[in-house]
TrEMBL record:
Gene3D superfamilies: Electron Transport, Fmn-binding Protein, Chain A
Matching SUPFAM superfamilies: FMN-binding split barrel (SSF50475)
Domain of life: Bacteria
Pfam families: PNPOx_N (PF01243)
Record organism: Paenibacillus crassostreae
Domain Pyridoxamine 5'-phosphate oxidase N-terminal: 10-90
Name recorded for this polypeptide: Pyridoxamine 5'-phosphate oxidase N-terminal domain-containing protein
């Protein structure tokens, strides 16, 4: 692990301004325990702010409303970045998308390399979408466009 900084690096910022997936870590509103979920509707507004959209059917929305402290885990630059921050609602519901989403802004408080000492990622994890490619591209386009307007 390494010391934390309060802003994302230029390379990390660039990765989070294009489609990527991250782990969103929250505190469960029911159990009070930690939770971790993979999400892809996220992008960096700038070096100190992330924006994400979550389906209202997800427990994550209630978790964040109940406790705004979150950690975003990003696999990039040969590292595992842990981005700690505080979430606030940017827009709820997010307009111009086919179902109800909540848009959150994450104010970055700390960024650190969470990979164990002496290690470097040899490759970043990759994913593929297993549903209709055209529908996926259309929905992602609608969500990212609405998030940028929020």
């Amino acid at each position: 692990m390494s010391e934390s900084v309060t802003q994302m690096t230029d390379d990390l910022l660039l990765q989070l301004q294009s489609e990527t997936f991250v782990l969103l870590n929250t505190v469960d509103a029911v159990t009070g325990g930690p939770t971790s979920s993979a999400i892809s509707w996220i992008y960096a507004l700038n070096a100190s702010t992330l924006r994400l959209a979550l389906d209202h059917r997800s427990r994550l929305v209630e978790n964040i409303k109940n406790n705004p402290l979150v950690t975003i885990t990003v696999f990039a630059e040969g590292k595992v970045h842990a981005i700690n921050g505080r979430a606030s609602i940017a827009l709820d519901p997010l307009p111009e998308v086919p179902f109800k989403l909540c848009c959150f802004d994450i104010s970055v408080e700390a960024v650190r390399n969470a990979l164990f000492y002496g290690a470097k990622l040899s490759s970043a994890p990759q994913y593929i979408k297993t549903y209709d490619q055209r529908a996926s591209e259309k929905l992602d386009g609608q969500v990212f466009s609405a998030m940028q307007k929020a």
